[in-house]
Amino acid sequence: MFLRNAHSDHRRALEPADADMLALEAAADVEHHLQYRDHHAETPLVSLPGLAAATGVGAIHVKDEGQRLGLGSFKALGGAYAVIRLVLEEASVRQGRTIDMAALHSSDVRQIAESMTFACATDGNHGRSVAQGAQLVGARSAIFVHSGVSDARVRAIARFGAEMIRVEGSYDDSVQEAARVAEERNWTIVSDTSWPGYERIPGLVMQGYTALVREALRQIPAPPTHVFIQAGVGGIAAAVAGHLAIVLGDERPVFTVVDPARAACLFETARAGHPVKVPHGEPTVMAMLECYEPSRVAWRILSRAADAFLTVDEEDALSVMRRLANPVAGDPAVVSGESGGVGLAGFLKAVADPEVKAALSIGKESRVFVVNTEGATDPGRYQEIVGASPAEVLSRGAA
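Structure for Diaminopropionate ammonia-lyase, as requested:
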């Protein structure tokens, strides 16, 4: 399904609070924070000239977040960043002076962090980031996972010392349970989705994602003309779209949000013109995107900064994993998890449909940008789908 953005706010400037959250100054603060993180390195921008030629466009660039901060996902930029910011803010309040990242591991800050517990609901990647952030500062974490989260992903979170809490039902059920328990126990919720009265912390999570956009704009030969970004609750899509709108202004690219057809909460929100909750149905293989209600903050940004909305099917997601693992001649192999290549899957679906291709003005000069949002966060599942282990895929090098 394809839908142009017909909202009355389309192409308007972001609201001031959202513009501040995604501004250049805020993004610079995120990059300053990253200088103090272990395993920090800019993730690669991968060029796919073979696929570009095969699809009739000028260039395709993939920002590969599969090794971000050792966590295997772009989410490493969000949850941990929010946790650390919140600890430093609390330390600043208690000590009556501004506490910077340089003092993060001081005994005074650690003592304050030890009195704090951070909680969230997750499909896997966000919870891993929150748990890692809590461990880094000496705080506690409690991570709520729904019944669809694999045991491998639960173990990957638990290794950071998190208390793991299983919740029957969907991701949205785990969000509600996390909020309820956190209020009872005076824990701090660090969610990547927002709801009325709860926006600042999800805003910090989204702010963390701006680092990958800053890196990509430095790495890419010329700004993209078309961007396809996948969405669960919409945080990564809104962060990328909003920051590009601020940085590039009238020269910003045509931006398409890509949803799983089985959990198309942003597509249906765009169709309705206001946030809607879609009914639960059959689970999607795109587990990190299986969300049935959008983030209010993300929708507010996307209603202005997104140009179109597109859904992809289960086989689209599986096919793009295999395609990245077995690339066309001249392209490097890329390890992409079940949700990682969904933006690229959206582009491939768009360029194969003459009406959608024309609606998005995709042509031979188009420069396409997508984000591989995760690597093989469940290696066993990855091998089942692709037919090779992540290490085997990476050993292939360029095709």
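The two ends are 32 Å apart (CA to CA).
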